Amino acid sequence: MNKEKKFLIASALLPGAGQFLAGHIVKGVLFVIMHLLMGGILLAGLFSNVLYKFVSLGDKPEVRTIFKTTAGDNSLDYLVNGALFFIILILFTIFYVYNLKDAKKLGKFIDAGNSLPKGEKYRDYVMDEFFMPTFLTPGALGTIFIVFFPMLLTVLIAFTNYSGPDHLPPKNLFDWVGFDNFVRLIKYKELSKTFFVVAGWTLVWAILTTIFNFAAGLLLAIITNSRRIKFKGLWRAIFILPYAVPSFVSLLVFRLMFNGLGPINALLHTNIPFLTDPTGAKIIAILVNTWLGAPYFMVLISGALTNISSSLYEAADIDGATEWQKFKNITFPMLWIQLGSTMILTFAFNFNNFGAIYLLTNGLPADSSLRYAGHTDILVSWIYKLTMDNNLFSLAATVTIFIFLFVASISLLTLARSKTFNQEAVL
Q: Is the N-terminal amide bond of 165 cis, ω within 30° of 0?
């Protein structure tokens, strides 16, 4: 039997054994430790009936009497433990398959007449082999448990009836309900109207704030980079100040200023409904967001402008091009190549910009025709109200899935079509 098959069978029976046989002790030890650790967690989960609890979500509710409270099953704990079990199972499978591939690779390497380095060369080999995985593994695990795990929980909750007042653990159990929440969101007139109205405003908000931020930043960058402007550094410092102040502080200050009894109305000796009129509140929200975001784009665009070759403008001057023609045919296309992806990310950020709405308007003014939402609420602030104010966790999770699918698809499609990622356009 050749080394390739021998190492493969050994690693299949005991992860890391093939690496030991090949003389790769460090890698073998790591494989053994990782598989023992994750295998132990999986076995502990199996012995504690984690799969049954995940499927059933509990059988015994909490019993409360005047004198005593008898603890029951906690559906949320069972859901979380089940999700963790499946994530660890996936990681275990990935490491196991990688262990087999690595053992096969080592066997093939030795069958070809090669040998692993020894002494200091082996130490250097180990350092080269494990340098990148050592630094990437913590970040990858952090992404899995901080980003992917909450996303998985959100998806799972969307298929349950986890909501108040009758299905809130630990007092009550909740159950799997399939696609009922998705049907409820579309079928019930009041919820459906709220969803589409809020989603429409969210889309308008994200598009306009992104365009306004870029346009204002572009204007400031062109002004501060103009040869006619003196004291450029001073002007840049002044324009960057709104970005230097924490955004939540600025938003609370603007909320106070545009209040019906705030200093602006007091100064004008009138009562303009800045935040109490639906249209006015939306306009103020967009303008305030522009105030906060324009300095960021000014800095980015100023840097991008310096990367545009002056020879392009000199050639345009020789051809008699106007300032507008130079901007249209040179400046803007070159900026878009460099900043197109940033625009897409800004759109995604503004689509979920909870702080700007919550701190400035809190979704107000109220709209009696909408369910749990106001005139200026965007989807993410509506989700906050569904969960924190009304305990409708399953419905909020359903809305979150729609947000993710929309933003992810739009972002990926736009990025795929963007010249930012087209190497030929750059060249």
A: yes
